[in-house]
Amino acid sequence: MPRKRTSRRLTADAALLLVAAAFALPLAWVVLSAVDPHADLRVRVPDGFTLANFRAVLTPDITYTPLLNSLVLCGCATALTVVCAALAAYPLSRFRSRLNRPFLLTILFATSLPITAIMVPVYALFVRVNLIDTMQGTILFFAASQLPFAIWLMKNFMDGVPRELEEAAWTDGASALQSLLRIVLPLMGPGVAVVTVFSFVTMWGNFFVPFMLLLTPDRMPASVSINDFFGNRGMVAYGQLAAFSVLYSTPVILLYVLVARRLGGGFALGGAVKG
Amino acid sequence: MRRRPGRARPGQARRRLVRVLPLTPAVVLILLFLAGPIAYCVYIAFTDLQLTGQAHASFVGFDNFRRAFRDSEFLNAVWLTLVFTVLSSLVGQNTLGLALAALMKRASKPVRTLTGGVVVTAWVLPEVVAGFLLYAFFRREGTLNAILEWLHLPRQNWLFTLPVLAVSFANVWRGTAFSMLVYSAALDEIPAEITEAAEVDGAGGWRRTWHITLPMIRRSIATNLMLNTLQTLSVFGLIWVMTRGGPGNKSQTLPLFMYEQAFQNSMIGYGTAVALLLLLVGSLFSVVYLRLLRTEV
């Protein structure tokens, strides 16, 4: 049935292209408006090409400080998450214990809790213990909220590293920490990369956590400061908003592409979520 | 290398240390910053704590909850959350994700790559940026109305007349990629012989889908529905950026209602009670999800 198959492929292609076009429209707006001298709210071919929007937003106040804040928050929190998750995953993956199953079930239960719901009590708690409006408090909360999923992913990747290699190292007198650092983690490089990138991308895009836990404008990451384009600055400069959105989004898109490439197209998350 | 229990060895204490010590940093962080707030949430939900910082919040029992179920704004938020979840997660992301995954199996490679790339980009974008893009799309002067005008169809101020529909579409735009990836992985696992055998037996497209494909990926469907719903229940930034929950409270889902009660109306106790209800619904879904995964842990 080659003809039938070809026509089926063409139908599928047409349907997919239609969906792709619909999904691409909002994306086209941000890219085109960023270089449009007279950007407004609809998608259209720019009447000229300009980098003025980028020049206007590339100031310490508007771009550099918020992006640096984002980098500090998400970088530190990701580092903390990955280190804690790798350490925690090791005994869970390597040793049998009666406590492993309940522990993993609790972790998995925690991954699906709506973090949004606990932000009001976290705010009240942070006010009490003087962690409100501090970078370290926000970093610690970010790390804690990401940890359950990071541990779960890390443990699954670690299960994929054969024990035999490690047992050889043990007989040679290596300690558990040495074998984790020298043998297990290097062998699960792509897994560590996925956990790192996933944590970083999630935090980079998170709006609600810094919105609740930080108060001083100077400490705000890009996810919160982007709202200043509305409100405070009077008339909304859509071109500048678009330019800033491009600057703010590019790092996470690049990171995603990097990881997706290394893992051969299909993102491992689909598989990881299924267990 | 399994050690037998009950036999004391010189290295045993050290080994136990090796098993427990690495877990400590993670456990401490989770206890302090996740379990702590949840416990605190349960506590404040039964008090009349206010933002203004009165010296002592007093215990008020179930008052906050009784009040919630008499509060028409709360009931409105519950209803809108339900509509938002059903429309965007159950119907939108889930169905569109499955359709895309199924179409991708048949489509040619360049089209597959292109569509996958665009849909996944929408997913990777920061939540607030996605909010702005769709705000621009649905505004009166926005792209959607420009297209409708071009097609000679009636235009509307979408964010004003149908805000829930607009934010639901926004959530579909943003979240479909996840379902698509889950279903693509699931469909790839169906052995080709089974589909071919059905084709030889003369089963048509719809019957094949209904009797073979869907039953074979039912676990993925359940997992995906569960995770989508949990994610959708906690959407805040997207709606906040697009409508602030308005006009009035026409798109105020539970997270936005909770925020408004706690911070605009300064009633942390009441806001937390609403948060606790949200958390309970989330936990319920979580438990169902765990049961689905039971065999795999």
From TrEMBL, chain A:
The chain crosses the membrane at residues 67-90, 102-126, 138-154, 192-215, 235-259. Gene3D superfamilies: MetI-like. It is found in: Cell membrane. One of its GO terms (cellular component) is plasma membrane. InterPro entries: BP-dep_ABC_trans_perm, MetI-like, MetI-like_sf. Keywords: Cell membrane, Membrane, Transmembrane, Transmembrane helix, Transport. One of its GO terms (biological process) is transmembrane transport. It is a multi-pass membrane protein. The keyword Transport applies. Residues 67-259 form the ABC transmembrane type-1 domain. Belongs to the binding-protein-dependent transport system permease family. This is Sugar ABC transporter permease. The lineage of its organism: Bacteria, Bacillati, Actinomycetota, Actinomycetes, Kitasatosporales.
Automatic annotation (TrEMBL), chain B:
It is found in: Cell membrane. CDD domains: TM_PBP2. Coiled coil: none annotated. Keywords: Cell membrane, Membrane, Transmembrane, Transmembrane helix, Transport. The keyword Transcription does not apply. Gene3D superfamilies: MetI-like. It comes from the Bacteria. Residues 79-289 form the ABC transmembrane type-1 domain. It is a multi-pass membrane protein. The chain crosses the membrane at residues 20-46, 77-102, 114-138, 158-183, 225-247, 267-290. GO terms for cellular component: plasma membrane. Its main location: membrane. GO terms for biological process: transmembrane transport. The keyword Transport applies. Signal peptide: none annotated. Belongs to the binding-protein-dependent transport system permease family. This is Amino acid ABC transporter permease. It comes from Streptomyces monashensis. The lineage of its organism: Bacteria, Bacillati, Actinomycetota, Actinomycetes, Kitasatosporales.
